[in-house]
Amino acid sequence: MKVTYYGHSCFSVYANGKNLLFDPFITPNELAKHIDVDAIKADYIFISHAHYDHILDVERIAKNTGAKVLGNFEIYNWLLKNGIENSHPINPGGKFDFDFGTVKCVTAQHSSSFMDGSYGGIASGFVLTTADGNFYYSGDTALTLDMQLITKFTKLDFAVFPIGDGLTMGIEEAIEASKLVEVSKILGVHYDTFGFIKMDHQKALDSFKGAGLHLFLPEIGETIEI
């Protein structure tokens, strides 16, 4: 599958003829200032939780593209209040079928609140099953044994994990998470954007390689095949 990285935790996957975009946070990110947000294609947008660094560009991109936006019930209501009517609620445990395939919402161990401090619902991740392959985006999370349940329902081709530490998993925990979900290919996200999540790239690459895993760290704006 073709994967494009837009910085922080924002990436898109082209699967079964559809552009699937995750956690759009681009315009405030100095590392992604060369990205033309209005040129981004999206048929679906998935929001893992309500923190500003995962939702700040969702209104703009959704209104530009007409994409269907999915998030937990609190995010769904927030989207409706902000004029994004093409939205769809999904909470952990829930599963829905769409024209690209199937999405199942799973638990993430993380906090969640909107910029005004109001409750943002439970943080979550997504397991997507498509004709082109299957993948898991954990969202912002700590390592949790709940991850091993994913393999009981889905055989994954790759996973997307936060590796910047501090607010989420770091390198060591992401390696263990990869083992729990039985993947050898991992896209790393949620690093470098802020001072407290800056990461040693070579250490990360070497650590994953030493564990028999392939870590992908594409440049912001780069499209790769996974």
Topology:
Elements: E1 2-5, E2 11-15, E3 18-22, E4 44-46, H1 52-55, H2 58-65, E5 68-71, H3 73-81, E6 87-89, E7 95-98, E8 101-107, E9 124-130, E10 133-137, E11 158-162, H4 171-180, E12 185-189, H5 201-210, E13 214-216, E14 223-225
Parallel strand pairs: 3-4, 4-5, 5-6, 10-11, 11-12, 12-13
Antiparallel strand pairs: 1-2, 1-14, 2-3, 7-8, 8-9, 9-10
Description:
- Pfam families: Lactamase_B_2.
- GO terms for molecular function: hydrolase activity.
- This is Metal-dependent hydrolase.
- InterPro entries: Metallo-B-lactamas, RibonucZ/Hydroxyglut_hydro, UPF0173_UPF0282_UlaG_hydrolase.
- This protein is an alpha/beta fold.
- It has a single domain, classed as 4-Layer Sandwich (Metallo-beta-lactamase, Chain A), CATH 3.60.15.10.
- The chain contains five helices and 14 strands.
- Helix 5 (201-210) links the parallel strand 12 and strand 13.
- The longest helix is centred in the last third of the chain and has 10 residues, at 171-180.
- The termini are close together.
